[in-house]
Amino acid sequence: MDLISFRDLDKGTVEKIFGLAEDIDRQLERKKVDKLEGIMATLFFEPSTRTKLSFQSSAERLGLQVVDFLADRSSLKKGESFTDTIKTVDGYCDVMAMRHPAEGAARLAAEVAEAPVLNGGDGANQHPTQTLLDLYTIRKLKGKIAGLNIHLVGDLKHARTMHSLVYGLGMFGAKVTMVAPKGLELEEHMVHEAEKRFNFKMESRDSIDLKDADVLYVCRVQEERFIDKYEAAKVKKEFTISADYIRKGKKDLIIMHPLPKIDEIPPEVDAMPQAKYFEQARNGIPVRMACIKMLLEG
Amino acid sequence: MDLISFRDLDKGTVEKIFGLAEDIDRQLERKKVDKLEGIMATLFFEPSTRTKLSFQSSAERLGLQVVDFLADRSSLKKGESFTDTIKTVDGYCDVMAMRHPAEGAARLAAEVAEAPVLNGGDGANQHPTQTLLDLYTIRKLKGKIAGLNIHLVGDLKHARTMHSLVYGLGMFGAKVTMVAPKGLELEEHMVHEAEKRFNFKMESRDSIDLKDADVLYVCRVQEERFIDKYEAAKVKKEFTISADYIRKGKKDLIIMHPLPKIDEIPPEVDAMPQAKYFEQARNGIPVRMACIKMLLEG
Amino acid sequence: MDLISFRDLDKGTVEKIFGLAEDIDRQLERKKVDKLEGIMATLFFEPSTRTKLSFQSSAERLGLQVVDFLADRSSLKKGESFTDTIKTVDGYCDVMAMRHPAEGAARLAAEVAEAPVLNGGDGANQHPTQTLLDLYTIRKLKGKIAGLNIHLVGDLKHARTMHSLVYGLGMFGAKVTMVAPKGLELEEHMVHEAEKRFNFKMESRDSIDLKDADVLYVCRVQEERFIDKYEAAKVKKEFTISADYIRKGKKDLIIMHPLPKIDEIPPEVDAMPQAKYFEQARNGIPVRMACIKMLLEG
């Protein structure tokens, strides 16, 4: 079994992963984790320090050892094919975690490798463990996902994980409001796919109104996406989540962000009890441990 | 004890390594490997992702931990001498695996380090674990080496491991046919050294004829080696191992390659039962584990 | 608890670390080390192969696993704040070892991280484990520090660890002689701080005279520090520690150096029994193990 796309997973499997992650969370707290044996190879053909560290740390918490394929110093330079690289590394490990700039790379790797493959991001496409840890964080902090008002705010078009996230939120029955600047909305076919699959309807807005939000999921708006610099500055300002905005929201509002954040959330927000993005990042550990465990044992 | 050159080993030692590797192969299959304790340092002064990963994975399968000396970011830039670097790293590990562009670097390291040193390639010179895994692969797949018809095909002059391989094939009594383009033959003094030492005679050809081959060991022919581009293209084509060539050979022919391969073996060959190069790469694990074990325990 | 500056430590704590290091030294000799569990993250925002390797090796000898944050390929490039990086990595490890070019970076990290932080050097400022291993080496080789004649020789102004070392030598009651070229003396306020704090007086000279030295601690003199090339060459020559100099000293003189050395100590000195700098580097292992253990258990 591999973990390539969130959309390969049915609700039962997602809930199985959450159950495993909860068990592991308890084990981590007691500092007594059930250990596995074996080697994880990390292959990051595109730099992503935090995702790679999170996978490596998760593997090590499970008792695995790690080897890191440093893609930029590799045989790739000598012209070796991607599948040859995968087949060779396959002989050196029991499970692979991979990031690649090309869509479909992880699925191709999964086809040629005997070892299970975990997709840590392929192009603008899939990043299933991010979606899993996002959903897990909401569930853990709110006790449920169904019926919650989830506001997705920022550049939803270019955010790598938004596509899977709306799909996952649909799967678990959340009420989704998408708040994006004009031209940076989530692509229509992605909206329709999720709505049709889970028979629900998402709301769209072009300005922030947090009044009824239970969860605020923030994505960065990048100036480079605008032709007009004046427009860019105006929109960036509107989509900066100030402490004032947050104080006007529900008291138990939680703020999430896939990180790294730059200035879309000012530093003073970090100290507010609503800010949960570092906790969200920490949840990557039990969730990725659960995924690795499922793949190695399944 | 160190492992610097295949030619430092007598047949008894090579057979001891093969015996250890067979044991380890069985242990790996049962997923119950006898563990050692300690730290391996990898020092690759020249990039070689696959050799480094193979050493690291082998060490970890044995229960060792790994530290990696990233040579390009090192004190070397500050002008430190090679022997000072080795003496310092020596204090941080129990065994070293090293690759260096300069001939003799590994032997020099072995002289100044207390920890055993494994040579993972020094210049165009020695790469003993590659030769050991090549011979181990033939022995494992064919049940023996003695008397087999082994064809070495391609640019034998520049292939790093060819020198040791003919020596090792001589040691085990194989019949060797060297098939190289004109000007890219194995250097005469290397041929004579092996022939004299093991009292046998190798055949030389300049075109491929697989009819009686039991093993086909392929090396890349690089265009850069030719002055005449037309000649280069012609030779490259002749030395590409097509599926058609292979179908004309013995049914139980095995095809080996030190990898990475580029286009000297077309991708369609990978699926043929004769293609054993990925299995050959995998054999690097038990063979390197055997070498590490021997050095640490010997 | 964190380990940011040697000056945060009182004598009792330093002696506790030395006691732990002695225990660990004995355990390392018997190859039976009491193991801990957990993950160390190394964050080197400035390359330092030997310090990083020493921390990683120390952690692994204690049974910890290691993840390495490769700073140059990191989210830093995307503009993430230093504290965000630390908060995220904090979620992936149990202890951090860090080097950063900016003074105060390690202390800032310690403030935002829950995991204990070990400062492996921040700018020209602090590098407490180096000072600890320097003192530990003197104590181990000489049986004591108090009353010994310690000569500090070379560019004391720019040597990162000199400031802490004179402070530590004062704490343990050594007699300190500072021998620096004109203009490269240790800064006065550092001299005064140590002298006042520990109520002693250090001597200053501008040329080497080893007659009564028990310990010679050598720092590199870099030509770039001089405007006049002729002056630079003359001073460099005077401050090169030749075998002749050493033969004129006490028989049980020990020579130390923080490494890497270039030409301030000629290679022929390495073989003299007085040369202890590689042993000094090796002492980094038990000392850093002791520090990690104290932070994780304290």
Short description:
The structure is a homotrimer of 298-residue chains. In chain A, 41% of the residues lie in helices and 14% in strands.
What's the structural blueprint in terms of helices and strands?
The structure is a homotrimer of 298-residue chains.
Chain A: H1 11-29, E1 39-44, H2 49-61, E2 65-69, H3 82-90, E3 95-100, H4 105-112, E4 117-122, H5 128-142, E5 149-153, H6 162-171, E6 175-179, H7 188-198, E7 203-205, E8 215-218, H8 229-238, H9 243-247, E9 254-256, H10 277-297
Parallel strand pairs in A: 1-2, 1-3, 3-4, 5-6, 5-8, 6-7, 8-9
Helix pairs in contact in A: 1-10, 2-10, 5-6, 5-10, 6-7
How much of the sequence of chain A is in beta strands? Answer: 5-15%
Under CATH, the topology of the largest domain in chain A is which?
Rossmann fold
Largest interface: B-C, 25 and 23 residues
CATH architecture title of the largest domain in chain A: 3-Layer(aba) Sandwich
Number of helices of chain A: 10
CATH class assignment of the largest domain in chain A: Alpha Beta
The strand order across the widest sheet of chain A is 7-6-5-8-9
Distance between the termini of chain A: 7 Å
- The average pLDDT value of chain A, as a whole number, equals 94
